[in-house]
Amino acid sequence: MRLPRTAHTDRPWRIHEIADDFTVEDVWALPTPGGPDDLVWLVRQIAEGIRSGVNGEGPVSRVLFAVRWKLGALLGWDKSGTGISTRLPSLRDRLPADLREGPQGPDLGSSPFTSIYQRDDEWAAEMGNKTVHAVMHIGWVPDGSGGYRGQMAVLVKPNGPLGTLYMAAIKPFRYIGVYPALMRSIGREWQANAAGRSVR
């Protein structure tokens, strides 16, 4: 379920300290009911999906991702030298000492994403290319009925007019194909892994 931006901005997340020049693009409630300490399982699930290159499910989502990566290759959006720590400084450079000295979060392999930091109730990872510098923020929040669930926010900083145009162009496709498929996939995998979580 899509949430208002205030569902992210009104919470005391540490990401606000280091990404105040980013725009909160999207906020979603994740179908991941759990207990107060279950963020670690959600981070593990999402990290495994990122490392394996899973881009959601369903034909619409797969086509959209295929088109995006093809365009990126043709236009040079994702070339080496256009991402984090090359063209763009990492948000890790902005971390206060306590976050810098704490857990960074999982290794995301050869994906475009890099973990920034991880806490008991939030995890942030970043990616960058010629169009945008983006942050995926995963929080763990009370669900209003005595339990907890995940919440995902996407923060972006477009790279000039090209980045602004790119974000506007992909907006309808994100809502039509990408996010619905992603939410279904996250929810199904969370439920499938429920037994394993309960015995560990």
Largest sheet: 5 strands, antiparallel
Q: Note the beta-strand portion.
A: 15-25%
Distance between the termini: 29 Å
Helical percentage: 40-55%
- Overall, the morphology is globular
- pLDDT < 50 stretches: 58-72
Could you tell me the number of beta strands? 5
What structural class do helix, strand and pairing data support?
alpha+beta
Spatial extent as radius of gyration: 16 Å
The number of helical elements comes to: 7
Please tell me the overall pLDDT.
83
SSE topology string: HHEHHHEEEEHH
Strand order in the largest sheet: 1-5-4-3-2
InterPro entries: DUF2867
Organism: Streptomyces maoxianensis
Protein name: DUF2867 domain-containing protein
Question: How would you describe the overall organization of this protein?
Answer:
It is built from 7 helices and 5 strands, in the order H-H-E-H-H-H-E-E-E-E-H-H. It has helices at 6-9, 15-18, 39-51, 59-75, 97-101, 160-192, 194-198, and strands at 23-29, 114-118, 122-128, 132-142, 148-158. A hairpin with a 3-residue loop joins strand 3 and strand 4 (132-142). The protein is globular, with a radius of gyration of 16 Å. Pfam families: DUF2867. This is DUF2867 domain-containing protein.
